[in-house]
Write a structure and sequence with these properties.
Layout lengths: L1 E5 L5 E6 L7 E6 L2 H6 L2 E3 L5 E6 L5 E4 L7 E5 L7 E6 L2 E7 L3 E2 L6 E6 L6 H11 L3 E5 L1
Parallel strand pairs: 3-11, 5-12
Antiparallel strand pairs: 1-2, 1-10, 2-5, 3-4, 4-9, 6-7, 7-8, 8-9
The structure holds zinc ion (ZN).
The site of zinc ion (ZN) has 8 residues, from loops.
């Protein structure tokens, strides 16, 4: 399955190849202080392949907080946050926002709350290496 997503104005777009086709897509409503404020709900497939296309990089704000090991990519024109990346051991990992999906049947989304409070930095990075998308192609 090819999942397409983009911010509202289309400046940040992504395609996530999910093979084999998912019977359900985990949708984690993140309980961190930032995601609580903007309603961040994320998914990833460690075997997926993500292609990101940014039309105008000057209109992307990268926001970090807390351990500063992840970057939220915020479209400065429309305010949407389609993805988060984390660079670990020189590899770029990513999760994408199910809120930015285009044309995906909502009944595929298996929503659940997620809280990573109290997780140490080492276990946080290890979890991302296990769960986040490990193949990320970036075209600007
Ligand atoms: Zn935008």
């Amino acid at each position: 399955m090819l999942i397409h997503g983009k911010c509202h104005c289309g400046n940040i777009a992504f395609t996530l190849a999910w093979d084999p086709d998912p019977r359900e897509i985990p949708a984690r409503a993140c309980g961190c202080t930032f995601c609580t404020k903007h309603g961040g709900v994320w998914t990833s497939n460690p075997d997926g392949k993500l292609t990101v296309k940014v039309l105008d990089g000057s209109l992307v704000t990268r926001y970090r907080f807390g351990t500063e090991t992840a970057e939220f990519h915020i479209c400065s024109r429309c305010g949407i946050v389609p993805l988060v990346t984390s660079r670990i051991d020189d590899r770029l990992y990513a999760v994408v926002s199910v809120n930015a999906f285009e044309g995906v049947d909502p009944s595929l989304l298996k929503r659940s709350p997620a809280s990573f409070d109290g997780e140490g930095e080492a276990s946080r990075l290890a979890r991302r290496k296990r769960n986040w998308i490990a193949k990320v192609d970036w075209t600007a």
